[in-house]
Every structure is written in C-alpha cells, then in structure tokens.
Design brief:
Strand order of the largest sheet: 1-2
Keywords: Calcium, Disulfide bond, Glycoprotein, Heme, Hydrogen peroxide, Iron, Metal-binding, Oxidoreductase, Peroxidase, Secreted, Signal
Cofactor: Ca(2+); heme b
CATH topology of the largest domain: Peroxidase, domain 1
Number of helices: 13
Enzyme class: oxidoreductase
Helix content: 25-40%
Pfam families: peroxidase, Peroxidase_ext
GO molecular function: heme binding; metal ion binding; peroxidase activity
Order of helices and strands: HEEHHHHHHEHHEEHEEHHHE
C-alpha cells in the first residue's frame, strides 16, 4: 500500500488548528475571495477547492464513495468498554494496525487515493478533521445527498482503534444494532438510514472476488432510495452451500448485495424501517445526515470544536425520479417483510433487462 505508516511520524508532530471564536459577522479571508464568520475556517477553503477539483473532480464517483466510507470506518472505532478514539483519524495514522481488521477490507485503496491530499493539507488539519471534511465534501458531489455540518479541532489520534468495532458485512442484525447502540444510535430508523444511505452511493471491492466497484444498487451516482427497493427484491442468501458464504444471488445484473443489507431489510427489528424509506427521499436524507453528523462527533466534545460548516459547498438538489422495479419485474418480485405496512407500489422500468455497469475506479484512466 502506498499510503503507509510514514504518516504517523508527520502528523503526530503537527500543531492543532482549533480556534473557538464568538464572531457572528462574516469577514474577508486572507485570500481576498472567501468570507467566514470564524477566521480559523479560512484555511479550509483551499482544501475544499482542492478536494472538489482534483480528488472528486465534480463527480459522485469512486473517490467520493471512498471518502464517505472512510468517515464511517474511522468514526465507529470507539466503545464504552474497549476504548478507541472515534472520529480521530486513527485509521490513517495507525493504518498498519487498523487495515488488518477484516471489516476494513478495501480501505487501503481509499487511503491510497486520499492519502496524498491528507499529506498536502496536514499543515492546517489533523487526520481526524481531514477525514470528516473530505466526507462532508464528498456528499455534496452526489445529487440528493444532504449537506452536513463540519466541526474542526480534533486532536491527533494517540492509538489505533481496538479490533472488532467496525460492523462486518456478515454480521447479524442483532450484532449490528448492538454495535450502533453502543455509540448512541437508538432507533432502527437511524441505523437503517446510515447504512442504506451510505450504500446508495457506493460499490463493493472484492466482495465479488477480483471485481472492483460493483454497485449496491442501480443508481450509485445518485443519493436516492433505490437501494431500499433493490435489496428488497427476492434473492438467495448462501450460507456456505451452493455459493460463497454471505453471497446473495440478486435480481439486478451487475450489482451485489451485502448479507447485512439483505438481513436488515428482512429482520423484524429493522424491516419496517428499511421499507419506510422507499420513495421517501426527504426522510432518508434527513435521517442519514443526522446519523453521519453523530458519527463525526464520536469521541469528540463538540463544545471544544470550531463550527466550520460554512466551508462546505451547497448540496446538489435531487433530480432523480421515484424508485422503480428493474425491467421485466413486478411487485411479486418484492420479498415483503414488514408486517404492518404494504410495500409502496412501484412502476417497472421499460425495456429489456440490463446490466448495471461497474463504478470506474479512482485510478482508472
């Protein structure tokens, strides 16, 4: 992996940029272009510009998906009993340890892509701040995704996260809910919104052996509710016989379904929450945004951080249509699980069945 432990020696020696101020008026930044309520936030405008133009390149693509994934994998590394720093950047600084955790499969590629930008801007940001800023900026590359607040001033990480804190795609619903509950997620709606929303703009690497960027739903470049339909379509979950353990035979060619998503959509503890977001874009975006903000503050004291939300660009409006069934399928292909409400009626896409293309990788030419 290109992005290596060399980061540790650099970032642990850097000062923290954190200035809390009581200013309420916007003032011109030293660049003569941007304005900010808090002058400490001025240093972040060039970082945001660099991320948008040179990392994400204005696309809700592989780099944006990876930055969002990194937010979760770093933040969730905290436990009231086992310790960990939460949203502190330890997954970058102590990557040689945390990348050995099975649930962090593929994060090495994400760090290889984001690492040069972290190094470039390490004079003004700690690893924890950079990961959260990159995640917030990644979301506004995706139509329909919420604009989430960003707070700056996280200390440098002092140790790797304990193992076993990142939910695994093969975990049970009970295990997933317990893990989220330990860090303050109290309802099924919160958990489902974060998991489903993240997977709405994501793809899998190596879940299908030797295949990268396999989408989780038909619209991986749009933050929408299609994921909640595609996962509810009938599929066969293998448990070791007839297929690789955890593999789901899906009805949408070119996509892959995580075992954890399959179970969340069908378990009695979460299936109605999963179904509730189908074609309910505002509710899903709101719950997701609240959940990601909660993740970004794990292990942090918000009162000691500087609110630099003003540097996050405006969100892109949702321009997609309602979630639909793939060509050739009907409502009979939905595996109804929620016992208290009927699945929303969906139209079927016209034309013959198609294959969803893989997401181009960030280092592809």
């Amino acid at each position: 992996m290109v992005f290596s432990a060399a980061l540790s020696a650099l970032v642990l020696a850097l000062p923290i940029l954190s200035v809390n101020a009581l200013r309420t008026r916007r003032a011109l930044c030293p660049d003569g272009i941007n304005t900010a309520v808090n002058q400490a936030c001025c240093a972040l405008f060039p970082v945001v510009k660099d991320l948008q133009e040179n990392l994400f390149e204005g696309e809700c693509g592989d780099a944006a998906h990876g930055a969002l994934r990194l937010v979760f994998h770093d933040s969730i590394g905290i436990s009231p009993t086992l310790g960990g720093g939460g949203a502190d950047g330890s997954i970058a600084t102590f990557n040689e340890t945390e990348l050995t955790f099975p649930a962090n499969l593929g994060i090495d590629d994400v760090l290889d892509t984001l690492g040069p930008f972290l190094f470039k801007h390490s004079n003004v940001m700690t690893p924890g701040d950079f990961i959260q800023l990159a995640g917030a900026v990644s979301l506004v590359q995706c139509p329909g995704a919420p604009r989430i607040p960003f707070f700056m001033g996280r200390a440098h990480p002092i140790a790797a996260s304990p193992p076993g804190l990142v939910p695994d795609p093969f975990d049970s619903v009970e295990s997933i809910m317990t893990r989220f509950g330990e860090v303050g997620f109290l309802t099924a709606e919160e958990v489902v919104a974060v998991v489903g929303g993240s997977h709405s703009v994501a793809g899998a690497d190596d879940i299908v052996p030797n295949q990268q960027g396999v989408p989780f739903d038909q619209t991986p470049s749009v933050f929408d509710t299609q994921i909640f339909v595609d996962v509810q379509l009938r599929g066969t979950l293998f448990t070791g016989e007839g297929g690789q353990q955890g593999e789901v035979e899906t009805a949408v060619a070119g996509t892959v379904r995580l075992q954890s998503d399959h179970l969340l959509a069908r378990d009695s503890a979460t299936n109605c929450a999963w179904q509730s977001f189908v074609n309910n874009q505002p509710a899903m975006a709101t719950a997701f945004g609240q959940g990601v903000l909660k993740l970004s503050l794990l292990g942090q004291n918000q009162n000691e951080l500087t609110d630099c939300s003003e540097v996050i660009p405006a969100a892109l409006p949702f321009t997609g249509g309602p979630a639909t069934l793939p060509p050739g399928l009907t409502m009979n292909d939905i595996e109804q699980a929620c016992a208290t409400a009927a699945f929303p009626s969906l139209a079927t896409q016209p034309g013959p069945p198609t294959t969803v293309p893989a997401i181009p990788q960030a280092d592809d030419s």
